Every structure is written in structure tokens, then in C-alpha cells.
Amino acid sequence: MTPTSEEVYIFPVSFSQERLWFLDRLEPGNPSYNIFRALQLKGTLNIEALEQSLKEIQRRHEILRTTFRLVDEVPYQVISSEISATLSVKQAPGELSFDDRFEWARKILVGGARQPFNLSQGPLLRILLLELEEQSYILSITVHHIIADVWSMGVFIQELSSLYPTYAADKSSGLPDLPIQYADFAEWQRQWLTGEVLTEQLDYWQQNLSGSPTLIDLPTDYPRPPVQSYEGRAEIFTLTPDLTEKLNCLSQQSGVTLFMALLAAFSLLLSRYSQQKDILVGSPIANRNRKEIESLIGFL
Fold first, then answer.
1. CA 257, 263, 269: angle at the middle one, nearest 5?
2. Whole-number mean pLDDT of the chain?
3. Of 23-32, 154-163, 218-227, the least confident
4. What's the CA gap between 279 and 191, in Å, rounded?
5. pLDDT tens-digit profile of 133-166?
6. pLDDT digits (tens, 9 = 90+) for 57-91
7. SS3 letters for 184-246?
8. Which strands form 8-12's sheet, in the order they lie side by side?
9. Using CA atoms, how far apart are residues 97 and 180, in angstroms rounded to an integer?
10. Which percentage of the chain shows pLDDT scores above 70?
11. Cα–Cα distance for residue pair 122/20, rounded to 1 Å
């Protein structure tokens, strides 16, 4: 094998990463766990400063240089010293009208968001800049959930917003060094969640989920397909100010957040339609209860 200057470091995966690694092995090429963000940029763009900013973010956060490898049938994080995710630039065809250029961009963005990742090869981060016309751009960021979460995308964009004007002005990065990396968190979690702590956690969930329904038996227009398609949809509607005020008052009187009150109402609706008393609900959380990990990119 030809020697290389690249250095790699191997760390255990977190429990969250192990879950997504298993799901990826179960359904290879499923893009359901891709996280996608698009930013519309207007004005003069310094592409060199943008590339420098993106590379600095990847340098700062080891998880953005991470892939996954099986060692003795156990998945591990493999952190590379090299930055492999680079900025790709595409320019809209000149003969297209401005509206057609947005449609051109939409098709590229949707296709990119649905393109699967290879967890063993990487990079697990794709960055694309679409130039619609002079001083009008769309920057898309697609990352696999195994190395980031929704909070992480906010951290990414915040650091990009800080670094770009700095590099555009030929100044050095003013961001403070990160106190820990995601691999440190994963190692801590593996050490903590063992023995009695792990047993207690497992017992709690096994008891509470014992006998729970495997699905919600809702009446539907069409029969449930034999194979899950993941073709979900969103229904968007607006609550009136008067109803919103009443819901806020109800939430305060009950000692809960507005989110909790609305979720309870939705669960009640599902119960009525399905005639089931047990409705299982999963809700994503930030899981960043320590200051050291607030500014960390990773799947927490």
C-alpha cells in the first residue's frame, strides 16, 4: 500500500451513532437521515473566503472529517486529518429566465438532498454553491444525521457567518478553540452508560413500553402499503390570534409549554380516530445540557 501523509484516529461511536449505523446497514442507500439546509446569498461573493471559512469549520469540528469502519464486527468512528469535503460550484445556464433558474436550482437541490451517503467512505458532508445570476446565489449544505443534528446546522451557519467576513477582510479566525470534540463526548457516554446506569435506563423503557401498540390504526383512504415508502407530507395551517391566546392561557394554567399542550391535543385527536388509548410519541430534543457541548457539531 502506498504510504500517505493522512493521519486517522479511531474512536468508539456514541449510542445514537450506533443506532443510525444499524439503520444504514438495514436499508443501505436510504436518504431519510440526510439533513439539508439552503441559504440564499445576495451581493458580491468572495468565493475564496467562503471556501476558507468552510475548511476552517471542518478543521475545527473533527466530526465533519469522520467516517465509520467495522473493527471485529463493531462500528467505530474514523477521524481523518484531511479535509475531503470541498465546495462545488454550478452556474445556471445563461439562456434561462430568472424564474426558470430557480426551478433549475430547485431540481438540483432536491436531487442533492436525496443523494445517499456512504458511511464508510465519506465525506459525509456535501457543500454546493449555485450561481443563479450575478450577485445571486444559493448555498446548500447536506450532511448525514450520524455526524450532525438540527442544532448542529445552527452552529455551522453561525460559524460560517462569523468566519466569512473575517476571511473576506484578510483577517485570521477569531473563534475560540473548542473545549472538546464529539469523539470525547462519545467516549464519555460509553463509559457512563454501563453497568447499573445502563440497566436502570433499559428497565425503565422496557417497563413503560411493554405491551404498547406497534402502529396507530387510523382509518385511511387507501390500504396501508406492504412496503414503507417514506413519502411523508406536511399540513400547514395558521391558528387565529384569539385561539393562540387561549392556548397560551391553558398552557400556563396547566404548568406546561405551548408545545406540550398542542402535542397533547394532537395525541387526543389520534386516539379518537384510532380508538386506541395508548399513543406512542417520539420528540427530538437538543440533548445539550452542558455548556461544553453547546457549540459542538455532532449527533447529540
1. 145
2. 92
3. 218-227
4. 34
5. 999 999 999 999 999 999 999 999 999 999 999 9
6. 999 999 999 999 999 999 999 999 999 889 999 99
7. HHHHHHHHHCCHHHHHHHHHHHHHHCCCCCCCCCCCCCCCCCCCCCCCCCCCCCCCCHHHHHH
8. 8-12, 74-80, 66-71
9. 48
10. 98
11. 15
pTM metric for this prediction? 0.87
Q: Name residues whose C-beta falls within 8 Å of residue 154's C-beta, 6 or more positions apart in sequence.
A: none
Q: CA–CA separation, 104 vs 28, rounded Å?
A: 28
Peptide bond into 284 cis (omega under 30): no
Element (H, E) at 12: strand 8-12
At residue 116, the pLDDT reads: 95
Q: Which residues, 6+ apart, have CB-to-CB distance to 295 below 8 Å? A: 155, 178
pLDDT tier at 288 (50, 70, 90 boundaries)?
Answer: confident
The residues near 80 (Cβ < 8 Å, ≥ 6 apart) are 6, 7, 8, 65, 66, 67, 122
Residue 212 and residue 98: Cα distance in Å, rounded? Answer: 53
CA dihedral (158, 160, 166, 172) positive or negative: positive
Instruction: For residues 202 and 3, give the distance between their C-alpha atoms in angstroms, rounded to a whole number.
Output: 45
Residue 248 one-letter amino acid: N
Cell of 250: 391553558
Predicted pLDDT of residue 3: 40
Q: How many Cβ atoms sit within 10 Å of the Cβ of residue 246?
A: 12
Supply the DSSP string of 116-185, one letter for each residue.
Answer: ---TTT---EEEEEEEEETTEEEEEEEEEGGG--HHHHHHHHHHHHHHHHHHHTT----PPPPS--HHHH
Q: Return the amino acid letter for 11.
A: F
Residue of 65, 58, 75, 72 whose CA lies nearest to 15: 75
